[in-house]
Design goal:
285 residues, alpha/beta, six-stranded parallel beta sheet, 44% helix
Amino acid sequence: MADLPIYPSFHPATIKQGLSFAELARLAKDAGFRATAFDVEGAIAYDGENGPGTAIALLDGYGLEPSGWGGAPHVFASDADFEKGLRRLKTLAAFATDANAPNCMIFIPNRSGRPREEALELVAQRLKAIAEVLDRHGARLGIEWCGPQAFDTEPFEFYTGVEGTMTMAGAAGSANVGVVADSFHLFCSGSKPEDLPSLAHNRVYGVHINDAPHDAIGTLQDADRVMPGDGVIDLGGFITALVRAGYAGPAEVELFNPKFRELDPLEVSKESRHKSERIIEAALA
């Protein structure tokens, strides 16, 4: 895997919840990962308990590269909550980029409480504000969309898929806004792997790799995700499309399936790395 441009990254959503920053880092290392999703809030808290620089020193000591991180305010939050989150983002962005983790990820639902064009105007304004904070620290924002089966309690459809997400990015007018390519959400939204190089070339700012147990996309939920290679998604095509889109870096193995969270975290993590490596190697070696 050392010579390949894409490689698996640990993600804590796959395993049992409630582990500390130090426990997750050790788990990622023991499972053989070279990268881990970056819990920037956890890292800041770890520094507060153990001294400045200790969180990054811990990852460095384990040979772990910090990958994507969250912490941007929700685009549909109240004005007060959004402004509060934007202020906090300044601290998170400074810490993350000092740790050489430039990719911030934000999730935007496929439905909202506002008509689409009204929602897009709000989202564009808020994405631009977030992007400006990140840009001051040399960071980027990847938008993660979701398939149309989610958030069905909201009255109005919003954008999804690669094309819809690049519409949001374009409305923000910021070059450091792009997409998070999640193989499950790509599949469920009806987008195709080739949409990534054709619509988001050099604008993929994060990757999640996972699989779906069947192709009835109208019924799939996040908790249905299965290990890469154990489902029906063309993950080989997904990986090669990422390379054609200009992406190189970690692919976080992100599952939300409660079945895996009940099992031994180390064994689940090892399995997720092995299965992801096989797919990536077969696609790119």
